[in-house]
TrEMBL record:
<protein>
    <recommendedName>
        <fullName>Pyruvate, phosphate dikinase</fullName>
        <ecNumber>2.7.9.1</ecNumber>
    </recommendedName>
</protein>
<keyword id="KW-0547">Nucleotide-binding</keyword>
<dbReference type="GO" id="GO:0046872">
    <property type="term" value="F:metal ion binding"/>
</dbReference>
<feature type="domain" description="Pyruvate phosphate dikinase AMP/ATP-binding">
    <location>
        <begin position="328"/>
        <end position="378"/>
    </location>
</feature>
<dbReference type="Pfam" id="PF02896">
    <property type="entry name" value="PEP-utilizers_C"/>
</dbReference>
<dbReference type="Pfam" id="PF01326">
    <property type="entry name" value="PPDK_N"/>
</dbReference>
<feature type="binding site">
    <location>
        <position position="823"/>
    </location>
    <ligand>
        <name>substrate</name>
    </ligand>
</feature>
<dbReference type="InterPro" id="IPR002192">
    <property type="entry name" value="PPDK_AMP/ATP-bd"/>
</dbReference>
<feature type="binding site">
    <location>
        <position position="799"/>
    </location>
    <ligand>
        <name>substrate</name>
    </ligand>
</feature>
<feature type="domain" description="PEP-utilising enzyme C-terminal">
    <location>
        <begin position="570"/>
        <end position="921"/>
    </location>
</feature>
<keyword id="KW-0479">Metal-binding</keyword>
<feature type="domain" description="PEP-utilising enzyme mobile">
    <location>
        <begin position="454"/>
        <end position="536"/>
    </location>
</feature>
<feature type="binding site">
    <location>
        <position position="612"/>
    </location>
    <ligand>
        <name>substrate</name>
    </ligand>
</feature>
<dbReference type="InterPro" id="IPR036637">
    <property type="entry name" value="Phosphohistidine_dom_sf"/>
</dbReference>
<feature type="binding site">
    <location>
        <position position="823"/>
    </location>
    <ligand>
        <name>Mg(2+)</name>
    </ligand>
</feature>
<dbReference type="InterPro" id="IPR010121">
    <property type="entry name" value="Pyruvate_phosphate_dikinase"/>
</dbReference>
<feature type="binding site">
    <location>
        <position position="821"/>
    </location>
    <ligand>
        <name>substrate</name>
    </ligand>
</feature>
Length: 934
C-alpha cells in the first residue's frame, strides 16, 4: 500500500497538490451534468465549513481541513440536496450518476489506480454526514472495492495477506448489515465461532487462513439471507452503499434521535466518498479518536482513545478496549507529535473543542473527520470561559456556547460522598451525573419498565445505534467495554445522560440478564444499582444524593474557589453575570408563599409573576372555600368571607415582605370548582351507607344535593376564574381587600410593596370592567380607612383564544397582560392536558406530529401566533402596557427566545427554573444583537 506515497515524514505535498488539481480533471472531463444549474457533487477541495447545509457537517469539515493543508485522504461529497431528491422521488437525481462518475474518474487519476481493479485496487469508504452530528445513527461502509479477485491484489500490494482478508470480511459484514439488511448478529456469531474454534479471545488473533474461512462463511450468510451473492462489481457496491446512506436518514433510530435532539427531519444527509487509508495493516498502524480538551470535564490535556491494528469503527463500537491517546506517544512518537500540532491548529481555527477521527497507516497520519465536539454541561461552561481567557472568543460568544438545558443538568443532585456505599466496579467517567435505577440488559425492557414508572439503568457490553430508545428511557447507561469515544459515551453526552463506560471487571451477560463482579457477586435484572458518571464508580443499591454545588451557589451557600466544583461554579458565575448584563427580559417567579418567594429571590427572581391564591386554601382552609361556594344565604356567605379575610391578609403580608421592592402579581381565585368540593362518588357512598344504617346524614345529604347542582362535565371550562368572582358575590372583593390591607400594612412598616392584581380567565372586556370597578372601590375604601396612598395595578391573564383575539379591547381596562400559556395551549388545541399526555401524546411524538409536546415548548405557529397578535394589539391600545408570561413555558429555553422575539417584558417560572430563564434571556438578547450586527 505504500506505492502511492513518496514520504511518510509528513503529509505528502505532492498528494496535496494532486488533490488541489482534482477540479481541473473534473472540469476537463466535461461529464458533469446539472439540472437547473444544480450541482450534486463537490470535491473536498471545493467546499468549506460554512457549507454544512449543503455538504453536511462531515463533508464541510473535510473540505475545511483540506483547505488548511492537513492530511486528508482525497474524496468527494454528494450533497444533501441529492438526498432530498432521492427521498422525495424514490430515485437518485438523473445527473447524479454522471457527476459521481466524473469525480470518481478524477479520484482514480489522483490515486493512480482504479476502483476495485484486480492488481492494485482503489478502495473507498462511503459515509453519512448530516448537518448536525448524529453519532452512529446513520450508515457507513468501509473497504468498498474489494472482491474475490481484488482481495488478492490488495494482499500483494500491502505485502500482508491477513490485512487484505480482514478488510474483506469487514466489507461483507458492514455491507451485509447496512446495505442488504442482514441481521448483524449473524456475522458476529460467525466471527465468535471462528475465535472459539481457534481458542482465541480477539479477532486480531485470527490469521489469514482463519479469515478466509470467515469470509466464506459471511458470503454464505449473505446468500442465505438475501437470495443473492455478495456483489463483486465495485461500482455496484459503491452505488448501493450511497443509496443505503440516503435511506438511513429515515431509519427508526435516526428519526428517534432527531426527535430527541430536535433536529429537523427535512435536512437530509450528505454522503462522503473517501479513498481508504488503513489502520489495520499491523502494529505500526491504527485508528483513534481525539479531543482537544476533555469532553467530560473541559480540562485541557491529551484526551482520546487509540487502537492499534484496527479500523475506525472498532473504536466507536467499543468492541475492543482501547488505550489512552497519551500512549500513542510511546507507540509512534512522530505521529503523536504531528497529531498534537494538528489538534492545536484545529482548536485555534474552530475556536472550540474539536472531536477528531484519525488513522495511522504504516506511520503516516491521516485525518478522517473533525467537528465541534459534544461535551457535558460542566465542560461546556468551563470551555466557554477558558476560550474567553485565551482570547479566542468574547463573552457574547461564550454565552452562545452554553444552554439553559445544560445549566439545568448542572443543578441536578449528586451522590453523597459521606454515604455508606458498596462499590462493585469502576469504569470510565464518560458523562457525569448521579443515576439510580433497576438493572436492565436490553433496550426493550428499559422502555417497557420506564413506561411503567420504573427508573432503570441500561447495562450492555457496548451499545449500538439500535439501543437508542433504551438509552433515552434509562436514567443512565453502564457498559463493560468502550471508552470516552464509544457510541455509549458520545450519545449519552449529547443527551445529558449519566454514563459509565469500559467497566472491564464487570462481566455483562445479556442473554442470562445478569452482571457479575470481579469477586463473583451477581447482579440480576431488577436489582438496584447506582452509577456515578463523574467518577466512573458503580455501586450496588441506591446511593443517597445531595444538592448540586451549582444549586448551592445560586442559594448563596457556595463561592468560587480552587477545587473542581468551585471551578465549575466560577465558570457558571461568569457566564450568568454576563447574561444578566445583556438580557432585556426580566425573570420573575411563580410562587405562592413567602418560603418559595425567598428561594426564588436567591435564585435571581426579579419579582413574582404569578401568585396562585387558590393554593393558599389547601389543607384545613379548604373548608372555608367549600362553605363559601355552597352557602345558601347572604349571612352564610358573609361569615365565610369574614373568616377568610384575615388569613388572606397575613399570607399577603408575608409574601410582600419576602419580595419587598419587587413586583408581585397576585392572581385572584381561579380553581376549577371541583377542586374545592367533596368528591361526588365518596359523598354518594357516605350518604348511601348512612341511609342503610339509618344514621343521621342531613348535612351530607344537603352537601350532596349542592354538589350535584354544581357538578360540571368539564370543570376546566366551567365556573372558574372571573366567572366565579362574578357569580359568588364578595369573593373577589374580599381578596382585593386582603391584598390592599396587606400592602398598606407593609407601607406603614416602611416596606415597599409593588402589587399587581390579576383577574383570571377573562374572555371579554366587560367581565374585566365589572371586576375592575369593584376592585377600585375596595382599594379606595382601604385608602380612606388607613390614610395610606395605594398604587395597585389591575390587569388580566390572556389564557383564552377570545381574549387574545380581542386583546386590543381588553387593554382598555388592563394595565398589564400575563399570558397563561398552559390554559391557552389547552384551549387553542382543544386538549385536556391531564388526559391527553397519558393517552395519545406518545403516539403523536413517535409519528412526528409533534417534535416536542406543546405544553413543554410553545407552539409558535398556533399559540405563539395568538401571543404575538395580542402583544401588538395590546400595545396599540395602551403603549405602556406591561406584558409577561406565567405559564410553564416561561422557564423553557426555546420558548424564552420566542418571548424575547415578540417583545414581552418578563417571563415567570418556577423557582428552580429561574437561572435557566435568566441564562436563556441573555442568550436571546446576545443572539438578536449578533443578528442585527450581521
Amino acid at each position: 500500500m505504500t506505492g502511492r506515497r513518496t514520504s511518510t515524514d509528513a503529509f505528502d505535498l505532492g498528494m496535496f497538490l494532486a488533490v488541489r488539481a482534482a477540479n481541473r480533471v473534473i472540469e476537463e472531463s466535461g461529464h458533469v451534468s446539472e439540472i437547473n444549474d444544480q450541482k450534486f457533487v463537490y470535491d473536498f477541495t471545493e467546499g468549506n465549513r460554512d457549507l454544512k447545509d449543503l455538504l453536511g457537517g462531515k463533508g464541510a469539515n473535510l473540505a475545511e481541513m483540506t483547505n488548511l493543508g492537513l492530511p486528508v485522504p482525497p474524496g468527494f461529497t454528494i450533497t444533501t440536496e441529492a438526498c432530498k431528491v432521492y427521498l422525495e422521488s424514490g430515485s437518485e437525481p438523473v445527473a447524479l450518476r454522471d457527476e459521481v462518475s466524473a469525480h470518481l474518474d478524477a479520484l482514480e487519476q489522483q490515486m493512480g489506480k482504479k476502483l476495485g481493479q484486480a492488481d492494485d485496487p482503489l478502495l473507498v469508504s462511503v459515509r453519512s454526514g448530516a448537518k448536525f452530528s448524529m453519532p452512529g445513527m446513520m450508515d457507513t461502509v468501509l473497504n468498498i472495492g474489494l472482491s474475490d479477485e481484488s482481495v488478492a491484489g490488495l494482499a500483494r500490494q500491502a505485502d500482508n495477506e491477513r490485512f487484505a482478508w480482514d478488510s474483506y470480511r469487514r466489507l461483507i459484514q458492514m455491507f451485509g448489515k447496512t446495505v442488504l439488511g442482514v441481521e448483524g448478529e449473524l456475522f458476529e456469531e460467525a466471527l465468535d465461532e471462528a475465535k472459539a474454534a481457534k481458542k482465541v479471545a480477539s479477532d486480531t488473533d485470527l490469521d489469514a487462513a482463519d479469515l478466509k474461512k470467515v469470509v466464506k462463511h459471511f458470503k454464505k450468510i449473505v446468500k442465505a439471507q438475501t437470495g443473492r451473492d455478495f456483489p463483486q462489481d465495485a461500482r455496484e457496491q459503491m452505488d448501493l452503499a450511497i443509496e443505503a446512506v440516503f435511506n438511513s436518514w429515515n431509519t427508526d433510530r435516526a428519526k428517534l434521535y432527531r426527535r430527541q435532539e430536535r433536529i429537523p427531519g427535512d435536512l437530509g444527509t450528505a454522503v462522503n466518498v473517501c479513498s481508504m487509508v488503513f489502520g489495520n495493516l499491523g502494529p505500526d498502524s491504527g485508528t483513534g479518536v481525539a479531543f482537544t480538551r476533555d469532553p467530560a470535564s473541559g480540562h485541557a490535556g491529551v484526551y482520546g482513545d487509540y487502537l492499534q491494528n484496527a479500523q475506525g469503527e472498532d473504536v466507536v463500537a467499543g468492541i475492543r478496549n482501547t488505550v489512552p491517546l497519551a500512549d500513542l506517544e510511546s507507540i509512534d512518537k512522530k505521529s503523536y507529535d504531528q497529531l498534537m500540532h494538528i489538534m492545536e491548529t484545529l482548536e485555534t481555527h474552530y475556536k472550540d473543542l474539536c472531536d477528531i477521527e484519525f488513522t495511522i497507516e504504516r506511520g503516516q497520519l491521516w485525518m478522517l473527520q473533525t467537528r465541534v465536539g459534544k461535551r457535558t454541561a460542566g465542560a461546556a461552561f468551563r470551555i466557554a470561559t477558558q476560550l474567553v481567557d485565551q482570547g479566542l472568543i468574547d463573552e457574547a460568544e461564550a454565552l452562545q456556547r452554553v444552554t439553559g438545558a445544560q445549566l439545568a443538568q448542572l443543578m441536578f443532585p449528586k451522590f453523597d460522598e459521606n454515604a455508606k456505599v458498596e462499590q462493585i466496579g469502576r469504569g470510565i467517567a464518560a458523562s457525569p451525573g448521579a443515576a439510580v435505577g433497576k438493572a436492565v440488559f436490553d433496550s426493550y425492557t428499559a422502555v417497557k419498565w420506564s413506561r411503567s414508572g420504573e427508573k432503570v439503568i441500561l447495562i450492555r457490553r457496548e451499545t449500538n445505534p439500535d439501543d437508542l430508545d433504551g438509552m433515552i428511557a434509562a436514567e443512565g447507561i453502564l457498559t463493560s467495554r468502550g471508552g470516552k469515544t464509544s457510541h455509549a459515551a458520545v450519545v449519552a453526552r449529547g443527551m445529558g445522560k449519566t454514563c459509565v463506560c469500559g467497566a472491564e471487571e464487570l462481566e455483562v451477560d445479556t442473554k442470562r440478564r445478569r452482571m457479575t463482579t470481579a469477586d463473583g457477586q451477581v447482579v440480576e435484572e431488577g436489582d438496584v444499582v447506582s452509577i456515578d458518571g463523574s467518577t466512573g464508580k458503580v455501586y450496588l443499591g441506591e446511593v443517597p444524593v445531595v444538592p448540586s454545588p451549582v444549586v448551592e451557589y445560586f442559594e448563596g451557600r457556595m463561592h468560587a474557589g480552587a477545587d473542581d466544583a468551585d471551578e465549575l461554579v466560577a465558570a457558571v458565575h461568569r457566564v450568568m453575570a454576563y447574561a444578566d448584563r445583556v438580557r432585556r427580559l426580566r425573570v420573575r417567579a411563580n410562587a405562592d408563599n413567602a418560603e418559595d418567594a425567598l428561594r426564588a429571590r436567591r435564585f435571581g427572581a426579579q419579582g413574582i409573576g404569578l401568585c396562585r391564591t387558590e393554593h393558599m386554601f389547601l389543607g384545613e382552609r379548604r373548608q372555608y372555600v367549600e362553605r363559601l361556594i355552597l352557602a345558601d344565604t347572604d349571612v352564610e356567605r358573609e361569615e365565610s368571607l369574614k373568616a377568610l379575610l384575615p388569613l388572606q391578609k397575613q399570607d399577603f403580608i408575608e409574601l410582600f415582605e419576602a419580595m419587598d421592592g419587587l413586583p408581585v402579581t397576585v392572581r385572584l381565585l381561579d380553581p376549577p370548582l371541583h377542586e374545592f368540593l367533596p368528591d361526588i362518588t365518596e359523598l354518594s357512598v357516605r350518604v348511601a351507607l348512612a341511609e342503610s344504617r339509618k344514621e343521621p346524614h342531613e348535612n351530607d345529604l344537603r352537601l350532596l344535593q349542592a354538589v350535584h347542582r354544581l357538578h360540571e362535565q368539564n370543570p376546566m371550562l366551567g365556573l372558574r376564574g372571573v366567572r366565579l368572582g362574578l357569580v359568588i358575590p364578595g369573593l373577589f372583593t374580599m381578596q382585593v381587600r386582603a391584598i390592599a390591607e396587606a400592602a398598606a400594612h407593609r407601607i406603614d412598616a416602611k416596606g415597599d410593596p409593588r402589587v399587581e392584581i390579576m383577574i383570571p380567565l377573562v374572555g371579554t372586556v366587560q367581565e374585566l370592567e365589572i371586576v375592575r370597578e369593584e376592585a377600585e372601590q375596595v382599594i379606595a375604601e382601604v385608602r380612606a380607612q388607613t390614610g395610606i396612598e395605594l398604587k395597585l395595578a389591575l390587569g388580566t391573564m390572556i389564557e383564552l383564544p377570545r381574549a387574545a383575539v380581542t386583546a386590543g379591547q381588553i387593554a382598555e381596562a388592563a394595565e398589564f397582560f400575563s399570558f397563561g400559556t398552559n390554559d391557552l395551549t389547552q384551549t387553542v388545541w382543544g386538549f385536556s392536558r391531564d388526559d391527553v399526555e397519558a393517552s395519545f401524546f406518545t403516539a403523536y411524538l413517535e409519528k412526528g406530529i409533534f417534535g416536542v409536546s406543546p405544553f413543554e415548548t410553545i407552539d409558535k405557529d398556533g399559540v405563539g401566533a395568538l401571543v404575538r397578535s395580542a402583544v401588538q394589539a395590546g400595545r396599540a391600545t395602551r403603549p405602556d402596557i406591561k406584558l409577561g408570561v406565567c405559564g410553564e413555558h416561561g422557564g423553557d429555553p426555546e420558548s424564552v427566545h420566542f418571548f424575547h422575539e415578540v417583545g414581552l417584558d418578563y417571563v415567570s417560572c418556577s423557582p428552580f427554573r429561574i437561572p435557566v430563564a435568566r441564562l436563556e434571556a441573555g442568550r436571546a438578547a446576545a443572539e438578536a444583537k449578533g443578528s442585527d450586527s450581521r
